[in-house]
Amino acid sequence: MAIYVPDLRRLIDAVYAGSTSRDSMLHGEGHWKCVAWTGSELADHVPRCDRAAVLLFALLHDTQRLNDGHDPGHGPRAASFARDLHARGLIAPPAETLELLCDACHDHTAGTTSDDPTVGTCWDADRLNLWRVGMRPDPRWLSTTPAKDPARIQRSRRCEGNHRTWEQLLEITPRPSAGAG
Hints:
Number of helices: 8
Strand content: under 5%
Number of strands: 0
Radius of gyration: 14 Å
Structural class: mainly alpha
Shape: globular
């Protein structure tokens, strides 16, 4: 992960400062951490998934929400925020991975699935946390085979990870492997 995040504390501070939704009960930091935990768990079972990109998606995807209701621009704003963090040297994924991260953020509310292992895992980690808004995740809207497992869908209801620190979540996110996507 060090190759993607040169300084975790500086990144977290910048995300906190730039977030419009950190304290939201539905889309705030607790949700971001649930997505990070769920994404890490899924990534263990999705070949060619870039675990570090999934963690960055979890941290960034809902940071630019203006409200907890209909806000179709928050994904594109999150992608722009990711590019800004990259330009400032706070995240340093390879160019191809940055594009995947930005695509995942930009389109995460489009209601589609993805064949890309990293993008699909990002979206699945977010959608498996729909329990928090009273919705059971629907396998038809999940991209990866591991996410569609009924036991995993039910287990995701616990929203694990929400009380972890970002440092703890980083520990369960190993550095990307040479074959990561």
